[in-house]
């Protein structure tokens, strides 16, 4: 997907060890901490996911406003998004979906023309003295934005399961797959079972 960026900014240090410690407390087996490499994975498969709420990850995401409108519906999270109310938008800063490009040159050109016209209208409204918070009404959902998202591991697993399937919006599926790749490296015992 053209224009999407995903970066891991922060993660709970020694997350898997912390999660195992939290889980072992529940079972009174703290003295066995670190003895079994699959202990945490087994608890997750059994459905004991409350213990993975003790770790979190924070990501920087650059994507369309259409994506972030869907993303922030996952409320067990913290979000900080670039403001269109206070920040003037840059020309040509939009997401071009692969689906448009796959339809050919004519569809791609028409899409880009629509984005250019929306920006020109936005700029004219600013030139007429309107504040960015009013002029932004003419900008499409394809306009690029930036957001920082923090999720605990349980919510992140939920999002990845829900948003990586074929029924998910393609841009969202791309985002979910990129995050899943990162999390499989960062916490394999928590995320390796996700497809």
Concise summary:
The protein has 195 residues and is α+β, with helices and mostly antiparallel strands.
How would you sum up this structure, described in words?
The structure is a single chain. Helix content is 47%, strand content 15%. The protein is an alpha+beta fold and 195 residues long. Strands 1-2-4-3 form a 4-stranded antiparallel sheet. Helix 7 packs across helix 8. The longest helix is centred in the middle third of the chain and has 23 residues. It is elongated.
Spatial order of strands in the largest sheet: 1-2-4-3
CA-atom Rg in angstroms = 21 Å
Apparent shape: elongated
Mean pLDDT: 95
- Give the H and E element order: EHHEHEHHHEHHH
- How many DSSP H or I helices? 9
Question: How much helix, percentage-wise, in residues?
Answer: 40-55%
Query: Proportion of β residues?
Result: 15-25%
Which class of secondary structure composition applies to the elements?
alpha+beta
Q: Major sheet: size, sense and barrel closure?
A: 4 strands, antiparallel
From the N-terminal CA to the C-terminal CA, the straight-line distance is 19 Å
How many E-type strands?
4
Low-confidence segments: none
Give descriptors for this structure.
alpha+beta; 9 helices; 47% helix; four-stranded antiparallel sheet; 195 residues; elongated; 4 strands
Topology:
Layout: E1 5-11, H1 15-27, H2 39-45, E2 56-64, H3 65-71, E3 77-81, H4 98-102, H5 105-127, H6 132-135, E4 144-152, H7 153-163, H8 170-186, H9 188-191
Helix pairs in contact: 7-8
């Amino acid at each position: 997907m053209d224009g999407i960026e995903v970066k891991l900014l922060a993660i709970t240090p020694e997350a898997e060890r912390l999660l195992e410690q939290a889980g072992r407390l529940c079972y009174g087996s703290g003295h066995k901490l670190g003895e079994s490499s699959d202990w945490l994975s087994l608890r997750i498969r059994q459905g004991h996911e409350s213990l993975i709420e003790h770790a979190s990850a924070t990501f920087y995401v650059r994507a369309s406003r259409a994506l972030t409108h869907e993303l922030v519906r996952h409320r067990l999270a913290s979000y900080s998004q670039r403001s269109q109310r206070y920040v003037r938008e840059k020309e040509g800063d939009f997401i071009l979906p692969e689906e448009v490009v796959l339809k050919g040159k004519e569809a791609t050109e028409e899409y880009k023309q629509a984005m250019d016209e929306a920006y020109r209208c936005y700029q004219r409204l600013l030139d007429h003295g309107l504040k960015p918070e009013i002029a932004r009404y003419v900008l499409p959902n394809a306009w690029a934005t930036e957001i920082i998202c923090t999720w605990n591991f349980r919510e992140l697993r939920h999002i990845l399961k829900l948003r990586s399937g074929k029924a998910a919006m393609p841009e969202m599926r791309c985002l979910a797959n990129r995050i899943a790749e990162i999390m499989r490296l960062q916490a394999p015992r928590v995320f390796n079972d996700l497809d």
